[in-house]
Inverse folding.
């Protein structure tokens, strides 16, 4: 069986059936690399999972009262033991919505919406594309993006 391999300066990947296995290079932004991969492969919608070692991560927490995100950056060596998210489109551009659970050296964990993180070690991801476009539009009343299946 001939495997299809792909690479850029930020990542290497292999197509496995309809899915992809993606390795993001050390010292690279997760969001930059995965967005570049999604654009390169013309993926309009799908699911992302991963496990990653990072030394910097910014998490966001949405406050429904203010309709704003509160960001917090952590700068220490951590393991992302669970990274899950989805790929959609907003205003014609790829939108990655990712959540992560991060573990510290003392085995405590914390989680939230992943604004971004810098890989320090390995970054291993699986991407499961859908064969259709899925669009998100901001709901001003709530302050968040929601799927709009009419678009």
């Amino acid at each position: 069986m001939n495997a299809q391999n792909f690479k850029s300066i930020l990542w290497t990947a292999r197509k496995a059936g309809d899915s992809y296995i993606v390795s993001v290079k050390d010292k690279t932004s997760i969001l930059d690399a995965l967005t570049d991969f999604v654009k390169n492969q013309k993926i309009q919608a799908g699911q992302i999972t991963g496990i990653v070692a990072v030394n910097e991560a910014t998490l966001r927490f949405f406050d429904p009262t203010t309709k704003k995100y509160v960001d917090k950056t952590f700068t220490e060596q951590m393991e992302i033991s669970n990274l899950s998210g989805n790929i959609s489109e907003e205003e014609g551009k790829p939108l990655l919505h990712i959540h992560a659970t991060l573990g510290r050296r003392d085995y405590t964990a914390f989680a939230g919406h992943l604004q971004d993180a810098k890989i320090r070690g390995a970054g291993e991801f699986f991407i499961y594309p859908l064969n259709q476009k899925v669009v998100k539009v901001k709901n001003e009343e709530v302050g968040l993006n929601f799927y709009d299946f009419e678009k």
